[in-house]
Design a protein that fits this description.
With 133 residues, this protein is of the alpha+beta class. It has a five-stranded mixed beta sheet. A hairpin with a 6-residue loop joins strand 2 and strand 3. The radius of gyration is 14 Å and the shape is globular.
Length: 133
């Protein structure tokens, strides 16, 4: 999962640099700790492009923490459930100060808006689907 996300940031940078810049700007100076099923990693954009790294001891200090499953992500991507419905159903847990949550949401929206226009993303999504249980 972390490797696919890192590849998606690289694809966005290569194919839609303006979208990549919007994501980077919204993540600037913020760490987002993400847990998908058993995998834990951190996304941060300190002074540049978003970087994905393995979660460490500093995971709890992240501005925002997200926990979910591959299945929940696919349910949202395939419009079987909205993100709000997934959060309310405890399929996606998001923790952070309100201001940081709003910033993370804006970064996610910028990422998705770029993703739907990025030629490499259908293949990345296919690979993600193969990971899903």
């Amino acid at each position: 999962m972390a490797r696919l996300l890192a590849e998606s940031f690289a694809a966005l940078a290569a194919e839609l640099p303006e979208a990549h810049a919007r994501v980077s700007a919204r993540l600037a100076g913020r760490a987002v700790a993400i847990r998908v099923d058993g995998e834990r990693f951190v996304v941060e954009a300190d002074g540049g492009a978003p970087q994905v790294r393995a979660a460490g001891a500093d995971e709890e200090a992240a501005a925002v923490r997200v926990a979910t499953s591959r299945r929940a992500i696919l349910d949202v991507l395939d419009a079987r459930r909205s993100l709000a419905e997934a959060v309310l159903a405890d399929e996606v847990e998001v923790v952070g100060a309100l201001e940081r949550l709003v910033e993370a949401r804006e970064a996610l929206l910028a990422y998705v808006h770029g993703a739907v226009r990025c030629p490499s993303f259908p293949a990345l999504l296919d690979r993600f689907r193969r990971l899903a249980p």
